[in-house]
Amino acid sequence: MNNIELIEKINELKKEKNAVIVAHNYQNDEVQEVADVIGDSLALSRYCADNDKDVIVFCGVHFMAESAKILSPSKTVLLPEIDAGCPMADMVTADALKEEKKKHPGAVVVCYVNSSAEVKAESDICCTSSNAIEVVKSIPEKDILFVPDKNLGSYVAQKVPEKNIILWEGYCITHHRVNLDQIKEIRNIHPDALLLVHPECQKEIWEQADFVGSTKQIIDFARESGHSKFIIGTEMGIMYKLKKDNPDKSFYLLSQGLVCPNMKKTTLKSVYTALNEMKYEIKLDEDVRLNAKKALDRMLRIG
Ligand code: 13P
Ligand code: SF4
């Protein structure tokens, strides 16, 4: 089947199965084109918590589809590519977190949504890169154990200095490798462009930025800004929406290495197969789901 036929089939199956296709901002262009909802982790979690579809086809990585299932247990949640994981999420396990909690008995565990359901279940509250600062500010206690992203955790620590933030040794392999030489090089070529970066980049990178935010916040900033040139320090999939929303503005990817191979696994073909064969269905242990939901719900209650 060619892409036009695949899109037709996907639309037929969507109606037949009362399904919705949600896609993260890093997905391949062709997947974003066929999606009903595109967004960052927070927007997609909110959408999945509150919609009337029977089936959610989650075009993203495993933890995102798991969050959808945690929030919508009665729906069938499908992840088109079962191997689409997140290496950062794998850098913390529930057992390792339990051990670390023993070392910091009074600390509140804030868990970045890039984590497994089991880790969420061991945490007090979740956050995304959109709301991490608000989440940490909402906690009365001073000591916070922040897992797993040390870069986002350092960013929050700088913005909320009144808290004692204990970091975990986790990071995103895609964002962590951005370096200062790349910034210097691209700023030499485009000296009048603003630098917009994701907080999963290292401290020395976000310290250089004109704006730091989640994928949605970067998209909103670029659309609302009076500026017309931007260097983008996050995964290349975001360029699709940036260019679509702003045909008269220019966007330059900070580094050609800003590719998340897991986000790129999903294709039109895999979306079609997911709907046609109803795979791969996300299933969770009910105790784990309920405990993980407490941490996600506490986050979602924050504005
Ligand atoms: P956002 O929540 O900003 O979309 O980020 C998710 C992610 O995985 C970033 O690498
Ligand atoms: Fe995980 Fe990084 Fe890919 Fe986001 S970009 S899904 S944090 S590996």
UniProtKB/TrEMBL annotation:
The keyword Cytoplasm applies. GO terms for biological process: 'de novo' NAD+ biosynthetic process from L-aspartate. Pathway: Cofactor biosynthesis; NAD(+) biosynthesis; quinolinate from iminoaspartate: step 1/1. [4Fe-4S] cluster binds at C86, C172, C260. SUPFAM superfamilies: NadA-like. It is found in: Cytoplasm. It comes from the Bacteria. Transmembrane segments: none annotated. Iminosuccinate binds at H24, S41, Y112, V113, N114, S129, H198, P199, E200, T215. Its EC number is 2.5.1.72. It catalyses: iminosuccinate + dihydroxyacetone phosphate = quinolinate + phosphate + 2 H2O + H(+). One of its GO terms (cellular component) is cytosol. Its cofactor is [4Fe-4S] cluster. GO terms for molecular function: 4 iron, 4 sulfur cluster binding; metal ion binding; quinolinate synthetase A activity. It is an enzyme of class 2 (transferase). Keywords: 4Fe-4S, Cytoplasm, Iron, Iron-sulfur, Metal-binding, Pyridine nucleotide biosynthesis, Transferase. Binds 1 [4Fe-4S] cluster per subunit. Belongs to the quinolinate synthase family. Type 2 subfamily. Catalyzes the condensation of iminoaspartate with dihydroxyacetone phosphate to form quinolinate. This is Quinolinate synthase.
